[in-house]
């Protein structure tokens, strides 16, 4: 998984410095995402040593570009093919948002069903 961030090419495997990573597949046109993720964003500020990569499954750039400044501390990638994105099949994504908690080596530790479950997991571990 690679993306462009501040003019630099980034990849999930190149992220370092955290003991856990949260991978979120979402969409800027998903009302459930827009209701749930900002609250998660605020709560994550109290959880140390976790970095977030938010992958927007999008049809276009406009809404995504308007939304990501509100989640400025996240790394942001975009998949313009939305449901036809290879990530959808690779990660078996059936809805947005979909969450994965990864360890420092980017191995999947958990796939929580909600933002609440994400926070529960991160606070326990």
TrEMBL record:
InterPro entries: Thioredoxin-like_fold, Thioredoxin-like_sf. Residues 21-108 form the Thioredoxin-like fold domain. Gene3D superfamilies: Glutaredoxin (3.40.30.10). This is Thioredoxin-like domain-containing protein. It comes from Maribacter litopenaei.
